[in-house]
Task: inverse folding
């Protein structure tokens, strides 16, 4: 399996990469253990995530990952495909749009592709808008579509 290509971009040059698509990342399996630990951490114990017998009777046919778990995995997957250097700190500033068009079945693999849509100056740094698409292997619809806003401070 080929490792994903990681693009390194100095913060001062980020604007010149607007419109660039990075990725896809490598495939990452979503395990039942991760789903169970996420449920315990967040207190979201919906049986569609945890109970095999219950989940088998749903339209999903088995347990599925929490949407917010899948969203949280965007950050480490993006780190495989994009590194912005010259940053003192970077923060997740928020989401402009978030959708979960298709479930992620436990045991399936996901990966992310990210398009840098916009870079603007903010006091003390830069704000970048990334259009992220998480796909689940073998599924026609994406699992997550998230417009993520990140702030970088030198």
Result:
């Amino acid at each position: 399996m080929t490792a994903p290509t990681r693009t390194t971009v100095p913060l001062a040059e980020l604007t010149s990469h607007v419109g660039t698509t990075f990725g896809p990342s490598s495939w990452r399996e979503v395990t039942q253990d991760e789903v169970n630990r996420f449920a315990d951490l967040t207190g979201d114990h919906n049986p569609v995530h945890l109970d095999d017998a219950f989940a088998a009777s749903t339209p999903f046919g088995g347990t599925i990952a929490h949407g917010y778990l899948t969203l949280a995995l965007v950050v480490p997957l993006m780190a495989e495909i994009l590194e912005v250097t010259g940053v003192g700190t970077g923060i997740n500033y928020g989401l402009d749009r978030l959708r979960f068009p298709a479930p992620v079945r436990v045991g399936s693999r996901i990966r992310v592709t990210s398009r840098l849509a916009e870079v603007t100056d903010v006091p003390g740094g830069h704000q970048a808008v990334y259009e992220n698409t998480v796909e689940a292997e073998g599924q026609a619809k994406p699992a997550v579509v998230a417009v993520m806003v990140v702030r970088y401070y030198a």
User: Anything to note?
Assistant: The chain has a mean pLDDT of 97. The chain has one domain: 7-29+65-153. The domain at 7-29+65-153 is CATH 3.10.129.10 (Thiol Ester Dehydrase; Chain A).
